[in-house]
Amino acid sequence: MKFFKDIKIKDLIFKNFALKILAVIIAVVLWIVIVNVDNPSQRKTISGITVNLLNGDVLTDMDYIYQVNSGSVISIVVKAPQTIVEELKASDFTAYADLTERAADSDKVPIHVSCTKEDIENQVDIISLRTEYVQLSIDNKVDRDFDVTVDISGSPADDYIVGGNSISPTTIKVSGAEAIVSRIESAVLRYNVDGMTDNIDDAVVPVFLDANGKEVSTDKLNVSRKTIRLKIDIFPTKWVPVNFAVSGEPEEGYEMTGYEPNLESVKIAAPKEQLAAYTSIDIPAGTIDITGMNQNTTLTAALSAYLPGGYSIVSSEQTLEVAVRFEKIVTAGIDVPVRDINLTGMNNADYEYEITSGGQNTVTVEITGRESIVNQINAGNLALSADLSGRGAGRYKIPIVIAGDDRYTVASEYYIDVLVKRIVEETTPEPTTPEDETVNAQPQTTEAETQSEDEPEKTE
After folding, report:
1. pLDDT tens digits, one per residue of 91-142
2. Strand, coil or helix: what is 436?
3. Which residues of 56-92 are buried (b: 16+ CB within 10 A; e: fewer)?
4. CA–CA separation, 361 vs 340, rounded Å?
5. Which residues does 176 contact at the CB level (< 8 Å), separation at least 6?
6. What is the mean pLDDT of residues 394-406?
7. Mean pLDDT computed over 327-345
8. Closest C-alpha among 313, 315, 396 to residue 354
9. Residue 268, Cβ neighbours under 10 Å: how many?
10. Closest by alpha carbon to 102, among 150, 54, 167, 41?
11. pLDDT per residue over 18-75, tens digit each?
12. Does position 85 have pLDDT exceeding 80, yes or no?
C-alpha cells in the first residue's frame, strides 16, 4: 500500500507524456489499418433513384406548365465500407430538385441526393451523380373547351337502322401545355354498331384529333372527364304503302288526263313497340288538289308531316311527288263524204236505194274531246253508217250511226236523205193494132214513180 501512496496522480499522467501520445496515435492507426484490412471501403453504382420535384407552384402560379423531359430517375456512385455498400439500395437515398433553384430563362434544375438510412448516413459518401440536372419542358398553360361530336361506324343488323343519338355532357375541357393543346382540333366519341339490334347506353372515352384527323395523346394533359355518356337509338324498319287521292276539278275547258306518283311505298323506322301498329301513310283528301289548273304540273307532299311522333322515313324518297297531266277540250267538225256512208239493211231485191241529202256531198260531224285526240280524227275514223232495214218505196230521213269511241263525244244527231224505189221488170210488148198504138202513145208512169210521187217524205 505504501507503494501506491508514494506514486502521485500527476506523475501517472504527465510522466513520459510524449511517449503516451505516440502510443495512442499508433493504436489508432493500428485500429484503422486493422479495420480497413477486415472491412475495406468500396464504390457502388445505385440506380433507379426517383427525383422529387419541389416547389412546382413557382411555375404554376405564373400560369406555366412543365413536364420533365429527363432526370426524373437517376443513378449515383457511392463509397462506403464493404459491409455497408453491399446492403445499399435505391430506397436508402433521397433525391430532389427544387424549382426555386432554377436560373432565370433556364429549363434545368440541379439535383440533390443524400443517404437517409439511419446509423450509416455518415459512412456513405456520394461520389458522383450520373445525371446532375432535371431537364424541364416549360410552356404556357392553356385551357380549352371542345364540343364533342359522335362518329358512328358499322351497320346494325338487317332491317335495323341507327336513329338519333345524344351525349352528356356535350363539351369537355382540356388543360395543359399550349404546344400540345393547340394541336387539338376536335373531340370525338367513336362507336361501332355492327350487328346491333338494341338501343345503346354506354360510357365512352373521348378521342382528341388534330387537323389531319390523327389522335393527339392526352397523357400530359388534364381532361375534365375521362368518359362521356353516349346514347344511340337502334330502330327496326319496314315498308308501308303511301295512300293518296287527286281531288278538285281543273279549269273549265280542260281535263286531267292522268297522274303519276314518284313512289308507292316508303321505308319507315320507329321503336319496336310502335312500329307494328303503323300500316300506311295516308295523305289527307285535298292535299293533292288540281282545282282551277290547266297546265301539266307536279304536286308535292312532305311525307314526314303525316307520320306520328317517334316515326321517321329512312328510304331515299322523303316527299310524295305527283305529276299531273292536263289537256284542253276542243270541238271540231269532220267533213265525211256522203258516198262514204255505209248503207246497211238493203236486203230487198225489189228495191233500189239512193242517198239524196238535198244535193249535199258531205255531212259535217262535230266531235268534242281532248285536243290531241280530236286532231287525229278524220272521216275514215268515224265509220258512218245508216240502217235501211224494212223500208219500202219512199223518201226517208235516216239517222246516221257513228261508231262508238270513248275518246270523244258527238255533239248532236245527224241524218241523211234516202230515196227507196221499187224495181219494175221489163216485158216484151204484144203486136198491136192501130187502135192499140193509139192507146200506147199516152205517157206511162211506173209503179215506183207513182208510189214515190204519191207518198210523203218519211223521217225516222
Report:
1. 999 999 999 999 888 899 999 999 998 888 888 999 998 889 999 988 888 9
2. helix
3. eeebeeeebbbeeeebbebebebbbbeebbeebeeeb
4. 10
5. 65, 141, 142, 218, 220, 221, 222
6. 87
7. 91
8. 396
9. 23
10. 54
11. 777 887 788 777 766 555 555 688 899 999 999 999 998 888 888 888 889 999 999 9
12. yes
The SS3 call for residue 237 is: strand
What are the distances in angstroms from CA 162 to CA 165, 230, 271?
A: 8, 13, 11
What is the tens place of the pLDDT at every residue in 416-432?
999 999 987 655 555 55
Q: Please name which of 325, 319, 320 lies closest in space to residue 259, comparing C-alpha atoms.
A: 325
Cα–Cα distance, 403 to 336 (Å, whole number):
13
pLDDT band at residue 442 using 50, 70 and 90 as cut-offs: very low
Q: Categorize the per-residue pLDDT at 198 as very low, low, confident or very high, splitting at 50, 70 and 90.
A: very high
448 in helix, strand or coil? helix
How far apart are alpha carbons 440 and 443 in whole angstroms?
A: 8
C-alpha angle 210-183-70 in degrees, rounded to nearest 5:
120
Are 155 and 193 within 8 A, CB to CB? Answer: yes
Residue with the three cell numbers 328510304: 315
Cell numbers describing residue 437: 198504138
| Cα 453 to Cα 308, 389, 419, distances in angstroms | 85, 22, 11
- As a whole number of angstroms, the distance between CA 78 and CA 44 comes to 5
pLDDT classification of 15: cutoffs 50, 70, 90: low
- Max CA distance (Å), the chain: 243
Helix (H, G, I), strand (E, B) or coil at 212: coil
Burial classification of residue 211, based on how many CB atoms lie within 10 Å of its CB (0-12 exposed, 13-18 middle, 19 or more buried) = exposed
Cβ–Cβ under 8 Å, residues 85 and 120: no
Q: Which helix (H) or strand (E) holds 37?
A: helix 17-38
Q: Are 93 and 76 in contact (CB under 8 A)?
A: yes
Give the C-alpha separation, 40 to 32, whole Å: 10
Position 20: which residue type? K
The count of C-alpha atoms lying within 13 angstroms of the C-alpha of 170, restricted to the half-sphere facing its C-beta, is 2
Q: Interior CA angle at 10 toward 9 and 11, to 5°?
A: 90
Here the cell at position 238 is 319496314
